[in-house]
Amino acid sequence: MKSSRAVTLFVQQKNQTDEEVALLQGELSLLLGNMGVTVGASVVQRRDAPDPAYYIGQGKALEAAAAAQAVGAKMVVCDDVLSPSQLFHLSQLTKLEVWDRARVIMRLFDARAHSAEAKLQIDLARCRMELPSLKGLGQQMSRPGGGIGTRGPGETEFERHRRKFHRRERDIMKRLDLVRQRRQGQRERRRRQGFFTVALVGYTNSGKSTLLRSLSKDPSIFVADKLFATLDTALRPVFLPSGERVMVADTVGFVRKLPHDLVAAFRATLEEVRESDLLLIVLDLTAQDIQGDLEVVQSTLKDLGAGALPRIIVLNKEDLAPPEARESLLRRWSEEGETVRAVSALRGTDLKSLCQAVDDVLFGGACAGKEVSGLSERMGVRHAD
């Protein structure tokens, strides 16, 4: 997208503090910035719930339109997912292009997709997100008609388009099923060979790919300082201090308000997380709200059915954070029963301590016997020295 300006809209509900809204404002600005869009102004309205017609009140919507004109913005972007009706009414009222958070994230995913698999999953999410929008066209798509490819003169334009969407969705799902079957076969082969799988999960741009590159010593791992740089699973072997070898998987990063349709569409990629034996939750020590980032990751993992998997919290970018902040988090989360390690994936510092922690969990060093037994049952086999 060419560089442009936007006005962002937020609804601040009763249970949200000013600090939480400021965090969301910063994150939406970052998402838009990764698309080359600059936020020229931001409009916040306190209300019990989003307006069913305009998302924010009609008066505030007109205020947003005036702000857009003042800063030269051509679009307004809402921080939540809008209904087709809200998109239509807000666009009609402001005379501007209207986006919601889901569309922003979808566009970012679309720009980052390189493999056929990633593009298929984005197409699937797009099908599921755009179908409800057809209903928003109302009478324009209610006219019956006939002709080649229709089901007779009684079929409306909406019904024809819906049928095409469903046909496209079924075609994509069949192709993705083949991807899932291939992935499942690969996982089963690794288990038969006695390999554990460790999945890197965490907030987008927290340094997961850099960590995989450092752990595996493989410079071919793609690393970029931008959101959602990784959409495809990358697997690399990593040797632990005991001499054991594990497979480490880099996966899609998470973010607040990640669209449900997008998570569901990326099932083939995210299955690597659910089927892993250990999670490394990678967090950015310099993040403004690292506790909130952890909660977002935990919530997403729960939605994926991976919330109960063994885990190690990895505090990345320790070289950029104040030592007292690092020590405070290490102490607090350790006291809460978490296994926590601080590292710098970029500089490669303290990776040995992290690898030892992985060794302990997977191969019994400091891990309770019951947990090791459970992991062994998942594997079906154990390494023998």
Number of domains: 3
| Level-1 CATH class name of the largest domain | Alpha Beta
Strand fraction equals: 15-25%
Largest sheet: 6 strands, mixed
> How much helix is in the residues?
40-55%
N-to-C series of helices and strands: EHEHEHEHHEEHEHEEHHEHEHEHH
CATH architecture of the largest domain: 3-Layer(aba) Sandwich
Total count of helical runs of at least 4 residues: 13
Structural class: alpha/beta
CATH homologous superfamily annotation of the largest domain: P-loop containing nucleotide triphosphate hydrolases
Straight-line distance between termini:
55 Å
> How confident overall, as mean pLDDT?
86
Tell how many strands the DSSP assignment holds: 12
Classify the fold: give the CATH topology of the largest domain. Rossmann fold
Strand order of the largest sheet: 8-9-7-10-11-12
Low confidence ranges: 366-374, 379-385
- Please tell me what the overall shape is: globular
How do you describe this structure in short?
The chain is of the alpha/beta class.
Describe what this molecule looks like in 3D:
The chain has 385 residues and is an alpha/beta fold. It has 3 domains: 4-108, Rossmann fold (3-Layer(aba) Sandwich), CATH 3.40.50; 114-174, no CATH class; 194-379, 3-Layer(aba) Sandwich (Rossmann fold), CATH 3.40.50. The chain contains 13 helices and 12 strands. The chain has helices at 18-33, 58-71, 84-94, 101-112, 116-135, 157-192, 208-216, 260-265, 267-274, 290-303, 323-335, 351-363, 369-379, and strands spanning 4-12, 37-46, 75-78, 97-100, 144-145, 155-156, 197-202, 234-239, 245-250, 278-284, 311-316, 340-342. Strand 10 (278-284), helix 10 (290-303) and strand 11 (311-316) form a beta-alpha-beta unit. Helix 6 runs parallel beside helix 9.
